[in-house]
Design brief:
Blueprint lengths: L20 H23 L3 H22 L6 H12 L12 H15 L6 H11 L4 E2 L2 E2 L11 E6 L2 E7 L6 H14 L4 H15 L6 H17 L8 H7 L1 H12 L10 H35 L6 H13 L10 H8 L3 H13 L3 E3 L10 E3 L3
Antiparallel strand pairs: 1-2, 3-4, 5-6
Length: about 375
Amino acid sequence: MEIVKKWIWQHDEYPRFNYEQSSLSLLLSEVSRNTGRLEGAVYGLNDKSVNSLLVEASINEIIQSSEIEGEILSRDSVRSSVRKKLDKTFDYVNDSSTHHTDGLVTLLLDSSYNNAPLTEERLHGWHSILFPTGYSDGHKIDVATYRSDEMSIVSSKGYRETIHYLAPPYEVLTNQMNELLDYINISEDDPYIKSAIAHIWFVTIHPYDDGNGRIARTLANYVLSKELGLDYKYYSLSTAIKKDRKGYYDILEKSQNLFYNREFDFTKWLLWHTHIINSAIESSLEQIKIIAKKTKFWDKAREYPLNARQLKVLNKILDKGIENFEGGLSTKKYVSMTNSSIATAKRDITGLIDFGLIKRVKNSAGRNIRYILSVD
C-alpha cells in the first residue's frame, strides 16, 4: 500500500527548495536598493542617533518575536537589558531588567554580531536562553537538545482538532539539522533567498520541543547579518512579521503542506519573506526620519533655560518614544513624573508651550487637555 505523502519533508526532492528566480528579480532588486538607502541614511546620523536606532531595533525585535508566539514581555525590562549592552550612558540605578530579558538580549547580540559558523552546540545554547527554567507554559521540556518525540502543530475548536503540520520523526533530526547547518555555513545563495530558506527549513524540521519559531527568526536574522554586514542590525524583521502574523502562519502552512504545494515550489514563500524584509527596512528608514526630528528637537531645546523637571519629562517622552507615549502629556502625568504640585506642573507646561517645545493636541479641552512634542 502506497504511503500518502502530505508534508514537504516526505517529498522526493526535499530538502531542495525550488523557486522561480525570474519571479523574484524585481523584488530582490528593490530590497537591495532599500538596503543601500538604509546604509546611506545610517551613515548620515551622528553616533548618538545610530545608537538610538540600534537600541530601538533590538527592543522591537525581542518583543515582537516573543509576541508572535504569545509571550508578552515588559518593554521597560527589555529596554533596560538592551541599553545595558548597547548604551554607555545606561543608568543602573533605574535598571528594570530581568535575567530572562538579559538572556534574550545575549541571544540577539550573538546572532547579530557573531558571524562564526553556526554549530549544533551554538543552537542549543540559544535554546537554553529561551527556556532557562526548563519549562514552557508550566510543562517540562527538553532544553538544549533536539526533541525525543513526535511533533505536530494542532489547533482545536470544541471537540474538533485540526493538524496544521506534522514534523519529521525525531530519529532523523540530527542528519537533517546537519544538512541545514551546512547550507547556512557554506551556501553562496543570494542573502535574502538564503535567509528565507533557512527560516522555512528550520521550522520544517522543528527540532525542539518549543521555541522553534523564535529560533527560526533568529536564524533568518543571523543569515542577513552575516551576509549583509551591519545592515540588518538597524531594522526588526519580527516587527514586520508580527504586522502580518496571520499571513505568516498561512504562507507557512500552505508551503509545507503538499495538498497546497503540489508543485513543490517555494516561490510564494520567498516572495512573502523578501517582502517582509523590505517592509522592515522601509520602517527603519521612517524611524531614521523620526530620529532626525528628535535631534532637531534637542538642538532647538538647548536654546532655552529648561529646569530639571522639564528636562526630565522631555527625556522620559523621548526615551519611551514619541509613538509609544500613549495619550500624550497631561498635567496629571506631569505631576506624577516630576512629583510636583499641580500649580508647578501647569507653570512648567506653559513654559514648554511658550518655548515651542510642546503643543496642545487638537480637540482636547478642559480636564482632558493633552500635549505632544513639537518635533516638526
